[in-house]
Amino acid sequence: MTDINKLFETVTLGNTTLNNRVGVAPMTRISATSEGLVTDQMVSYYKSFAQGGFGLIITEGTYIDDKYSQTYFDQGGIVFKEQAEAWKKLVDSVHQAGAKIFMQLQHSGSISQGNCFTEERIAPSAIQPKGEQLEMYIGKGPFPTPREATKEEIAEVITGFVNAAKRAQSIGFDGIEIHGANGYLLDQFLTEYTNQRTDEYGGSTENRVRLLVEVSKAIREAVGKDFIVGIRISQAKVNDYAHKWAGKEQDAEIIFGQLGKAGLNYIHVTEYEAWQPAFDTSGASLVSLAKKYGEIPVIANGHLENPEKAKEIIENGEADVITLGKGALANHDWVNKVKNGEPLEAFKPEEVLSPNAKIKEMEV
Q1: Residue 339: is it exposed, middle or buried by C-beta count within 10 angstroms (0-12/13-18/19+)?
Q2: Which secondary structure element, helix H or strand E, spans residue 310, and what is its range?
Q3: Which residues are tagged catalytic?
Q4: Which of the four CATH numbers 3.40.50.1000, 3.40.50.720, 3.90.170.10, 3.20.20.70 does domain 5-352 have?
């Protein structure tokens, strides 16, 4: 193996320094209680990554309000005092093991599969989602058609993100990540075929990215300049893996350009393979386009468990940090193993995604 020291340099996001450039990607889990409370099992799970050398851990998507945001039953929440207190034990455990931890904030929109507060779903437009619900997350059959969100409900969504960010900040998280990817609510606003609105939130790419920018700016204003705020962006969705932005690089310029001016500390880009060309019109990866047009730090995700691939994307200047999903699941000590030149375990989906397993993870 060639020298991979670049991965293990310290790196600074905002005013927060990470021990290295390797993080754990946010991965959907259904291992909280039915009330959305963190369990001891979750504490041990996240702590193990910190003990394994990862400099940054980004949590599973966490629901932000007691209205429409919950995505799955047994998903963790950050709405109530009791939920925050349960997360604090986890945060403290990760910090004691030497890592930084960000909470990913999620609103499911039209692709909710389980919400203990309501059976109704809101979305940019009343359009039935593609695909079917994921049975591994206790869903079955087609997604119901959502209701188009009113302007008042859009304002409530922003408030939900803000309140959740403030609550995460209050219990010691090092930052938050806005989930703007993978087909959930904010990505539904960004996507042409799920957003057929005729107001200022629909139509042009500038309009469709508006809500993501407004959420980013509102959180930044609420948490102050020193707390880390990032956003996750993708083209693919959990219910539409092949999706590509229709405007290609022009869309990338608008989306990343707008987000780069929204007060964020980083953009977290996830693609199936992070280094591959984003579009058929050029060889540039989506990660590199985020770096070019966002002009802020970029985190790259997508089959980077090979240390050489991970190192290359950092050394090429396309990303500042990489995150691992499947590679981290297979090797909670990936960083320590690579540092010590030890062999890595292959990802075995049957061990994580078995039908009878209570804990199921997916890189979304």
Answers
A1: middle
A2: helix 307-315
A3: 184
A4: 3.20.20.70
Report the C-alpha gap between 205 and 134 in whole angstroms: 29
Q: What mean pLDDT comes out for the span 182-210?
A: 98
Cα 148 to the center of its chain, rounded Å: 24
Three-class SS of residue 165? helix
Tokens of 353: 């995604």
Residue type, 343: P
Q: What is the pLDDT of residues 261-276, one digit of tens each?
A: 999 999 999 999 999 9
Read off the tokens for 117: 């507060």
Secondary structure of 314-358 in the HEC alphabet? HHCCCCCEEEECHHHHHCCCHHHHHHCCCCCCCCCHHHHCCCCCC
Whole-angstrom distance, CA of residue 129 vs CA of residue 17: 40
Domain residue spans in the chain? 5-352
Name the β-bridge partners of 266. 230
Which amino acid is located at 91 in the chain? V
Give per-residue pLDDT as tens, 279-290.
999 999 999 999
Strand partners, 277: 285
How would DSSP label each residue in 63-89?
E--SSS---STT--B-SSHHHHHHHHH
